[in-house]
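Quick one: structure tokens for this chain, please?
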Amino acid sequence: MALTTGPGGGGRFSRLAHDSRVATRNMTTRRSLESLTAEPDDNDGTQLKRAVGATQLTALGIGGTIGTGIFVVIGEGASLAGPAVVLSFVLAAVACMFSALSYAELASSIPVSGSAYTYSYATLGELVAWIIGWDLILEYGVSVAGIAVGWGGNLNAFFDNAFGWELPTAIAKSPEDGGVLNLPAVFIVLAITLVLVLGVRESARVNLVMVGIKMAILVFFIIIAFANFSSGNLTPFAPEGQDGVVSAAAVIFFAFIGFDAISTGSEEARNPKRDLPIAILASLAIVTVFYVLVSLGAVGLASTDQLSGSDAPLAAALDDGAGITWAAALLSFGALIAITSVCLVILFGQTRIFYSMCRDGLLPRNLARISPRFGTPARLTVLLGVLVAILAALVPLSEIVKLVNIGTLFAFILVNAGVIILKYKNPEFPRAYRVPLNPLLPLIGIGFAAYLMKDLPGETWLRFAVWLLAGLVIYAVYGYRHSRLRTEPDRAARPVVGE
């Protein structure tokens, strides 16, 4: 059986050899690196515009990360670790760092939309790619819906703090919380959908402005906090010892994961080989510095009880610790801006993953068509925006949002595994950036993700399994038959095993 081999170790089946070999290993067939990296040049109406640079990509990472994590979760972390929550932020950043290194290598080497889905297609085969893609659709969609609900709550908090009134419960909360329709959540999702339809350059500019505003508000908090710092609040520093620090880190970990959304926009980066590693690693570094300074300022400004007992811990710290009563309105406004940018970046990521799966034929390909006017997958973006808006408006989210955690960690495991596989399967393939000490550092990244996954509730694992089972049914009925690896045999790559 003939097998043609391209540069860098990539290979493609000839048409004559395709039927017999792929028939036995088609679900483990990998996309060749050559076909993936050539994807943006396909002249089939699915080409995205390369329109953003390193600064805008970095802002996407910051925009997708600094949100409710620092404005809200710091209180929960303080309740678990006390003032040592500062160390929890550092530990969570270290845990993310190993996966960020792997994302940086794969994003610069395979600068194509899809993030972990695309990387899995190139390293672990089509079936695993479908599983992680289906997982990411849920992760991003539920995440956006949950963030939108949080945006509505913060909008009401801002109205209350600034003007002394709130929206009626009937239009401000979902049926789960005693309302009829969460209108603010619907509004923010549809508004962001419109921005995303207009173009990636426009979306990146809007996000850059929002990132600047929320970072300015956090700088304001840091300055006031350290000007009124009380070392007495740091005693006892770690009341629950190491266990408390680790438990808080597991909670805080998910405040760092926005950097992976950068890789979903790989195909729209002007200079992906240089800009993507810079953006991924720089955004994680900047976010970590802000998180550590804000958390240190917070525990020095207010007691652990004051932080953990408030839904707006930073505002409570300024009010109780510094006596700035109008700070609640300012911090509520900052939280609104922060959550808006997170919502924009995460919904952007979901559209690009869904787009990649449609372009590969695993989902309807006509949804991957790019609007000639806007240069974006407008039809797909509107469809996902409407579905997420309905989810945010009506569906109870208190339990399903836990699926975001397991989905993210699962993606981290596969991305780290992909870097190891590429090292040995395609050692000569050109890489603009390489993970140092491979496979040691990716293995540590896998270990961190698996360690955090083991403590997730059994109900979360069950729901995750049900969602994946539903996805496998769709793959068997539609995706397997319509995959471009079958409809266009020349795109097939060598199988994962038996090479």
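The first strand starts at residue 3 and ends at 5.
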